[in-house]
Amino acid sequence: MEESTQELAANAAPEVVTGMVNNTFDEIVSKLSADKRNKVYRNLFVKNIVVNMDDEDRPRICLVLREEIAGYVLEGTEYKLGKTHNAFVTAFAIAAVLKEDESTAMMGNYIVRNPRVAENLLSGATINLIQVPIKAGEGYINPFTTKTDSEEYVSDHDWISNNITSIKLGVMGNKVVDRLIDRIVDAML
After folding, report:
1. What is the DSSP code (8-state) at residue 115?
2. Residues of 41-59 as b/e, b for ≥16 C-beta within 10 angstroms?
3. Whole-angstrom Cα distance, residue 39 to residue 83?
4. Is the pTM of this model over 0.70?
């Protein structure tokens, strides 16, 4: 049964959401999935990808989904919790998931260096996603971080952290991987 967006906001974690540096990817996913405050989505279809390079150090990647998920939407002049087709993620988050699969692991570093490749790589992909609601003023550290000295991120407004937990590439994504492998092999010869 799907949790309402109001329940998701009401159940936001009251403590600091921190990195789980000494855990494996699967252990982190298991812990996030088990936390009743979080919302788990499975088999979301990626229709389109928009990469915003305004901040070159931290490009924002918007996955436009067929299905609706919880998210903050503009109502008049302010953002309110509602339903959206957009999931904002980072190239680092996508890379972490790609590195968990031997058929896509080589794409991890490539997508971090070239975020725009996500526009083709993830077109038609199917993803699983865990949303972690974060309250204004609450400290947050990416649970998938491998850094032991990560600083807490604190926002002055409520928000939702979108954590991709699996990616199954579509036809286009598989073509991108094949072409990249060909380019790498050709460069080595």
Report:
1. G
2. beebebeebeeeeeeeeeb
3. 13
4. yes
